[in-house]
What does this fold into?
Amino acid sequence: MLEHVFLSKTERPYIDVILKDGTYHHFTPRVLNVLLESHRVHKFKRSGGWATVGVDAVRTSKIMCTDGPYSGPNRRMVTH
It folds into this structure.
């Protein structure tokens, strides 16, 4: 029981997700990130309601490479 209380304060153990095929699931945040990166998610539930992929801002854990779509200035500090 104590583990459940801890998880509810730090990270939701499962997130409600609707996939593009219309099926409804409960996934961990890690699995949701994988599914988002593979473009299989239609909607997922946030604390403020449902987020629709392609409509609402969605962040993934995938790191963009330097030759990706960002065309702004490089503000990373280079140290040697």
In short: The first helix runs from residue 2 to 10.
